[in-house]
Design brief:
Largest sheet: none
Shape: globular
Number of domains: 1
Number of strands: 0
Structural class: mainly alpha
Length: about 140
């Protein structure tokens, strides 16, 4: 059963997570991310020839960004999470049980450096924590 009906909270979480990602990869850790991901060696023309455009990336990121808060809010409500501590505990287990194992795959199978794993995994954890705090503030 889906309990989520607070679309304003979901929208706030989507926007907040978009801002977290923009700050994380575009400002705070930009040079580190470029270095670790290997995108620094590609020109904008090379990236475009592979189908990467900023506009499409932002649109897809925002649309897919609806999924995480929607699912998190639904799970939290299904599990009767009614406090910040419970929301943060749920975040930790979702992150550790789902996102960390999937993100490790990029190191193991795509030959990406471990530093990129830690950078991406930390970003995912921060984004989930932001989602949990918004849940606790606007839904509980």
């Amino acid at each position: 059963m889906i309990y989520t009906n607070n679309w304003l909270a979901i929208l706030v979480a989507v926007i907040a997570n978009f801002v977290v990602g923009w700050l994380w990869y575009g400002m705070v850790f930009k040079n580190l991310w470029v270095s670790l991901s290997g995108h620094g060696s590609m020109s904008m023309d090379e990236m475009k020839s592979k189908g990467a455009t900023a506009t499409r990336g932002y649109i897809v990121t925002i649309i897919l960004g609806l999924i995480t808060p929607f699912v998190f809010f639904s799970l939290a409500q299904s599990l009767l999470v009614s406090a910040v501590g419970g929301a943060l505990m749920l975040v930790f287990w979702i992150w550790l049980g789902f996102q960390v194992p999937i993100t490790v795959g990029s190191v193991l199978w795509d030959a990406k450096p471990w530093g990129l794993f830690f950078l991406n995994a930390a970003n995912q954890l921060v984004s989930l924590v932001v989602t949990a705090l918004i849940y606790a503030w606007m839904v509980v």
